[in-house]
Amino acid sequence: MKLILIDKDRTYFAKQHFYYLYNEYKEGEFGKVENISMWKVRGSKETVMMTYKESRLADILRYEKIHIGELTTQNIENKVLPWLKKHLGKYGHLDSDGFMHDDIYIAKGSECVFISPKFKYRWLYNYECLNMAEISSSELHYNTKLPAKERISKAYNAISVGMGAKYSYYAILDSKTEKITYYKEEVNYGS
């Protein structure tokens, strides 16, 4: 389950993971940076990226230097989109129509943009729940006075309750610090 929260001067990318017998990762594997589809952009300060899926696209982009500069409409249209098309084409990650196989999210400070597989884009504001929005969005929407990380924790706790989990495992990438922090919290089912 992934979500994006824009708060004050920064953007948070977050990913939650559950451990079941049939899962793609074992518990220790979630904490490996290479297994998570969000990362610091090399070549740009206070800039982070995330893909919707755990896909090859993340592996292609995470190791490349991408000088984005300011995150503006002009830079998205004149620098980022052409660079993505050329670079992904070079690695065979575009389909026969010239579209990529995943969504990309880029954040710099409190600016955040979504880029679709067809290379269309839109700006994001406040928050975006990429999975299970019917459960998690109310926790983000109605708790605006709480610190950002606590809002994310509440959103993931709500999802964990719905999934019947004992623990909530998640990671948060902060656009200001460019660091991923991992959390393991016992699920609060209330009294």
How does this structure look, described?
The protein is an alpha+beta fold and 191 residues long. The chain has one domain (2-184): Aminohydrolase, N-terminal nucleophile (Ntn) domain (Glutamine Phosphoribosylpyrophosphate, subunit 1, domain 1). The protein has four helices and ten strands; from the N terminus they run ββββααββββααββ. The protein has helices spanning 56-62, 73-90, 133-141, 148-163, and strands at residues 2-7, 10-17, 38-40, 47-51, 104-108, 111-115, 121-123, 127-129, 167-174, 180-186. A five-stranded antiparallel beta sheet has the order 8-1-2-9-10, covered by helices on one side. The chain has a five-stranded antiparallel beta sheet with strand order 3-4-5-6-7, with helices on one face. A hairpin with a 6-residue loop joins strand 3 and strand 4. The radius of gyration is 17 Å and the shape is globular. The model has no long low-confidence stretch (mean pLDDT 89).
Q: Could you list some keywords that capture this structure?
A:
single chain; 191 residues; alpha+beta; Glutamine Phosphoribosylpyrophosphate, subunit 1, domain 1; 4 helices
